[in-house]
Amino acid sequence: MTSPSSASPDGHGARLDAQSIRFERLLPGPIERVWAWLADADKRARWLAGGELPRQPGQTFELHFNHAALTAETAPARYAQYDRPIVAHHTLLRCEPPRVLALTWGGAAGEAPSEVLFELSEAGEQVRLVLTHTRLADRAAMLDVAGGWHAHLAVLAGKLAGQAPPPFWTTLAQAEQDYEQRL
Asked: Which residues form the Activator of Hsp90 ATPase homologue 1/2-like C-terminal domain (predicted)?
């Protein structure tokens, strides 16, 4: 049995291999509306991070994270370093509106970035979002992104449903505990 916002019974991501994890969500459509929440900087800032996407694959861009603005919850001490504006640099890999968005993720000096692929497809009146994060360096990297994507996607699902999203930091902390056991 699936919930309205998840393609898996409990909404957790599935480990595909040692370097990849996939999340699926069923979101209120239409597909153009969900695409706008991925591609439009102002909408994306409300669930993940702002920043304008470039026009062509291969171009670099910045994502501006402001976790404090996602929900009203105050960050606990363990997440204090993330409760301030953060700028991250990425490269656009693919942009095929309204179905595919792919970009690089992370990659410190001398480290290859991982890759994030968002795929949208129609599922009746809903939209299936498949987020696949690949080329993760190790289990620690997978654990890091798993909890983050889980919490950010919960915020997105709430916003698209017109509901208050769950508290970001509480969702993140619980997801990190869950993934420590699952992955």
From this structure: 30-157
